[in-house]
């Protein structure tokens, strides 16, 4: 099932920086876990190791029932939502959503079905024929989420997806991600340095410091402490 399990995960960069110093963590099926902590604490490195964008120096990583340490990103059955919109400006919203599926050789009607379904869930159906530049920031962000959604991955990884948005939009998108999470019950690992974002979104928070886990708990357990 969709579950992410990290055992003794470590990362030492060439040059000797120990960015991640031994992380044990399990994200349960359907759980939304937020990695939070100050800049440089290793959040991004950890997420990128899960995504397969960074090699793992030591430890074991499972997604679903598979050890994926040596698998390419595309083989890991995960989708990543990035900070920038990462949309193709010259393509319509439909084609932006369909692009990755086309590349993977999905059949036309399956692509159509998945794109329509993602668009319905994100309430962006009316934008499907439009180009991204005709959309507002929030609408573009939803399309970016749609690109991950159409892949129907076992788990979603979020790398500070809201940090480039203005304050108002950030709040709005936070609510939307929360609603989406309630509806879809996706297994998610979400990175942010924003405590409010972490509290709003996370079923469970993992506070990192200096490449190690400092605290793990529900938002209440972590922030309601004296
Ligand atoms: P965060 O996402 O919490 O800001 P990072 O994972 O980006 O933290 O960085 C953790 C540590 O690893 C920092 O000391 C950072 O300077 C270092 N680091 C990040 N990326 C690289 C890299 N490609 N090469 C060497 N050191 C890096
Ligand atoms: P799309 O985002 O439209 O689905 P692709 O999935 O084809 O596009 O990915 C484009 C590039 O990103 C490829 O080089 C692929 O290896 C890489 N990639 C695939 N899956 C992921 C992922 N989950 N996280 C990060 N990069 C990925």
UniProtKB/TrEMBL annotation:
UniProt KW keywords: ATP-binding, Cell inner membrane, Cell membrane, Membrane, Nucleotide-binding, Sugar transport, Translocase, Transport
GO BP, sorted A to Z: carbohydrate transport; glycerol-3-phosphate transmembrane transport; glycerophosphodiester transmembrane transport
- Whether Transferase counts among this entry's keywords is no
Please give an example of a GO cellular component term from this record: ATP-binding cassette (ABC) transporter complex, substrate-binding subunit-containing
Transmembrane parts of this sequence = none
Domain annotation ABC transporter: ranges: 4-226
Q: Name one GO molecular function term.
A: ABC-type transporter activity
Domain of life, per lineage: Bacteria
Keyword Ribosomal protein, does the record have it?
no
The name of this protein is sn-glycerol-3-phosphate import ATP-binding protein UgpC
């Amino acid at each position: 099932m969709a579950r992410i399990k990290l055992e003794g995960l470590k990362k030492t960069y060439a040059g000797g920086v120990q960015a991640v110093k031994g992380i044990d963590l399990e994200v349960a099926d359907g759980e939304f876990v937020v990695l939070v902590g100050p800049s440089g604490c290793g959040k991004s490195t950890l997420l990128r190791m899960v995504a397969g964008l960074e090699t793992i120096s030591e430890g074991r990583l499972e997604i679903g029932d598979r050890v994926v340490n040596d698998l390419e990103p595309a083989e890991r059955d995960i989708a990543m939502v990035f900070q920038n919109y990462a949309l193709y400006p010259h393509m319509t919203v439909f084609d932006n959503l369909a692009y990755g599926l086309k590349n993977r050789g999905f059949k036309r009607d399956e692509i159509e079905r998945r794109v329509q379904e993602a668009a319905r869930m994100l309430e962006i159906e009316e934008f499907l024929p439009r180009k991204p530049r005709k959309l507002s920031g929030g609408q573009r962000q939803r399309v970016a989420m749609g690109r991950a959604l159409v892949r129907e991955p076992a788990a979603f990884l979020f790398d500070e997806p809201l940090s480039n948005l203005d304050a108002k939009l950030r709040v709005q998108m936070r609510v939307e991600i929360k609603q989406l999470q309630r509806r879809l019950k996706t297994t998610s690992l979400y990175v942010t340095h924003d405590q409010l974002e972490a509290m709003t979104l996370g079923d469970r928070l993992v506070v990192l410091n200096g490449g190690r886990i400092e605290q793990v708990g529900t938002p209440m357990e972590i922030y309601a402490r004296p």
